[in-house]
Design brief:
Elements (H helix, E strand, L loop, with lengths): L2 H9 L16 H13 L10 H11 L19 H13 L4 H12 L7
């Protein structure tokens, strides 16, 4: 049995029904072993993602799980430097982009859905 097949079956018990890997269920020792094997690499790129895995991957990449609206338009606005600095700090602390912060603030000000 090749090293690749041994490793694949070794971690198979943590694979969920939807094909995602349950890393959190590993013990600290297992996590270290997993990292060591991943860093060593096998040169094998693996199989392409399934449609479900592509969907989960795309969802995970979105900040806060929100989709960017296709009809969004880039605008230029003037904002006081100190206010912008505070806004950027708030956005960073709440793991959102500046654009998301401004969009949510504007929605709240206009009493539109999606302000939460």
């Amino acid at each position: 049995m090749s090293r690749h097949h041994r490793n694949k079956s070794r971690w198979a018990k943590q694979t969920k029904a939807d094909g995602t890997f349950d890393f959190e269920s590993l013990s600290a020792q297992e996590k270290e072993a997993f990292f060591a094997e991943a860093e060593a690499g096998s040169g094998d790129r693996g199989n392409p993602l399934t449609s479900r895995q592509r969907l989960l991957h795309a969802e995970a990449r979105r900040v806060g799980g929100r989709r960017k609206h296709h009809e969004a338009q880039t605008v230029s606005v003037s904002i006081e430097k100190s206010l912008l600095k505070q806004a950027d700090q708030y956005a960073k602390e709440h793991e959102m982009s500046r654009s998301d912060l401004f969009t949510r603030g504007l929605r709240k000000f206009l009493r539109l859905p999606g302000a939460a």
